[in-house]
């Protein structure tokens, strides 16, 4: 696991890109240099009464410029994410990272990169890493509620990209699996991030198709470093340390081989 750093970082830019969805770029000294796709940062409130940070996945990493891009959804009034959405260029905020285990490319295996809802943003950095590595062919399939298909054009810049929308306003009507079947797509491995019902369906599909499957699990976290056990998930094998069937999403995850975890 890469080293983690705590930094006071400067906001370079921020804009709203969909209903309740914000796109923020931060200047960092160390974190961008060590981060990789699938990892996250803990973002701390400037309000001293809010002790716990919020985990936000990395949508973009620019190592040369020393910047991180966070695309996140505001989860309600008075929340940390609402506070973050009000930040403007020049403001500073404390973050810690990079945290968790990211995605690992399997060379030579044709891949589906799948995102759903706010699980879409972390797949963009991975698509860029897949493209730059040239190690494997890939297609992206992103699931949205409606025509607000944020980041879809950027996925198209990386390669073949498809959308599924619940209301049928863009792409295939339905979910990401409906799109895969309707378009007759095929691959050897799945990398996915999104809500648990989507991940559960993809795990079952991968087993049925005899495919490898890696899932990035979305979970509310507290400490973000594996100390508090607030974000455990059920695993298929016992943890060597605790001797129970649990894994910490922030520490052993958020990316797991799907067969390792109960969804």
What is the H/E string? EEHEEEEHEEHEHEEHEHEEEE
SSE class: alpha/beta
Identify the overall geometry: globular
Q: Approximately how much beta-strand content do the residues carry?
A: 25-35%
Number of continuous helical runs: 6
Mean pLDDT: 87
Sheet with the most strands?
Answer: 7 strands, antiparallel
Main sheet: which strands, in order across?
4-3-7-1-2-6-5
How many strand segments?
16
Radius of gyration equals 18 Å
- Which percent bin holds the helix content? 10-25%
List low-confidence stretches.
219-233
Distance between the termini: 24 Å
Keywords:
7-stranded antiparallel β-sheet; 7-stranded mixed β-sheet; 16 strands; 263 residues; alpha/beta
Structural notes for this entry:
By secondary structure, this protein is of the alpha/beta class. It is 19% helix and 33% strand. Strand 1 (5-18) and strand 2 (21-27) form a beta hairpin. The longest helix is centred in the C-terminal third of the chain and has 14 residues, at 196-209. The radius of gyration is 18 Å and the shape is globular. It starts with a strand and ends in a 6-residue tail after the last strand.
């Amino acid at each position: 696991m890469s080293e983690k750093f705590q930094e006071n970082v400067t906001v370079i830019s921020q804009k709203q890109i969909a209903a309740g969805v914000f796109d923020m770029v931060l200047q960092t000294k160390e974190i961008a240099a060590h981060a990789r796709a699938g990892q996250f940062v803990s973002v701390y409130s400037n309000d001293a009464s809010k002790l716990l940070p919020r985990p936000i996945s990395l949508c973009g990493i620019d190592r040369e410029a020393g910047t991180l891009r966070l695309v996140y959804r505001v989860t309600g009034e008075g929340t940390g994410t609402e506070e973050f959405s009000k930040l403007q260029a020049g403001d500073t905020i404390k973050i810690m990272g990079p945290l968790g285990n990211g995605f690992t490319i399997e060379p030579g295996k044709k891949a589906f990169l799948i995102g759903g809802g706010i699980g879409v943003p972390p797949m963009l950095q991975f698509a860029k890493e897949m493209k730059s590595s040239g190690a494997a062919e890939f297609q992206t399939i992103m699931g949205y509620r409606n025509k607000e298909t944020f980041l879809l054009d950027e996925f198209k810049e990386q390669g073949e990209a498809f959308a599924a929308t619940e209301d049928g306003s863009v792409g295939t009507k339905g979910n990401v699996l409906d799109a895969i079947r309707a378009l007759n797509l095929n691959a050897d491995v799945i990398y996915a991030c999104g809500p648990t019902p989507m991940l559960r369906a993809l795990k079952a599909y991968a087993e049925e198709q005899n495919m490898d499957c890696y899932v990035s699990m979305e979970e509310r976290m507290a400490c973000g470093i594996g100390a508090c056990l607030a974000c455990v998930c059920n695993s298929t094998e016992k943890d060597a340390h605790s001797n129970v069937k649990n894994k910490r999403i922030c520490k052993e995850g958020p990316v797991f081989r799907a067969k390792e975890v109960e969804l």
